[in-house]
Automatic annotation (TrEMBL):
GO cellular component term of the entry, any: dehydrodolichyl diphosphate synthase complex
Protein known as: ditrans,polycis-polyprenyl diphosphate synthase [(2E,6E)-farnesyldiphosphate specific]
Catalytic activity: n isopentenyl diphosphate + (2E,6E)-farnesyl diphosphate = a di-trans,poly-cis-polyprenyl diphosphate + n diphosphate
Species this protein is from: Acorus gramineus (Dwarf sweet flag)
Main location: endoplasmic reticulum
Cofactors that this protein relies on: Mg(2+)
Pathway: Protein modification; protein glycosylation
Localization, UniProt: Endoplasmic reticulum membrane
Coiled coil location: none
Gene Ontology MF terms in the entry: ditrans,polycis-polyprenyl diphosphate synthase [(2E,6E)-farnesyl diphosphate specific] activity
Entry's EC annotation: 2.5.1.87
Record family assignment: Belongs to the UPP synthase family.
Amino acid sequence: MDSPDKIPSLLTPQFKSSRRSGAWMLLSEFCWHLLHFVVYMVHKVSHIVDTFQFYLISRGLLRKYNILQVKKLRHLAIVFDSEEAHQTSKVGELMRYLSSVGVKHLSLYDMEGVLKRSNEMELVLKSVGDSSVTSHLEADANPSTAFIDKEKMELELLSFSDGKEGVAKAASFLYSKYLTDVDISGHQIEPRFTEADVDSALRSLGCGGPEPDLLLVVGPARCPLGFPAWRMRYTEIVHVGPLRSLKYGAIVKAIYDFSKKHQNYGS
């Protein structure tokens, strides 16, 4: 049996190893919390700077933002979180502002189709278009389109179903068009679909539409929330925050920054 004076010497390596392991755990935990704190502070400072800049832009104190060149912005799309889309009055205010700055084509999208089904949208369209609205907002319309003073802005309302149903209808259209083709000997011709065929099918079914140059995401999410992917091949995507606290300076800055960019589309 070991004597009592040998016990500390036998436990010393394990004890030292345990202490080192505990120290490393404390250090790694400290570094982890420090990293989180740094990221949090950078985010908060960036948010404060952006909010202050948006305020200055809204007040017209930053002169370069006072005149927007919207000619390059042929089509603007706005993606709303479905909760945000229920704020119809604020959506109307945003539409009025975009119409006033010269946006020609506007698409509004929310996943659940809140805007398409809203009875208040007709009133909003009339208020935006000064009662000169030709409305096409039937429940079965796909997609829904309205013209707000045709010299000013064309409006399109979209939902997640437009994407899913669009693909299904395009597949059915291509099936009926190509799978019934036969050659001279009476054998069925194997179909070969190209991207152009799919794009043509989507457009012929009213599910194509122009591709947005700029897409603004309104709400907590920082993703397009199911906006039809085939219409975003070269789209610039910008998150502008929740609708309830949206600053028009954020919209102005997004449009201004887009107007100053040069897009390379490849060969």
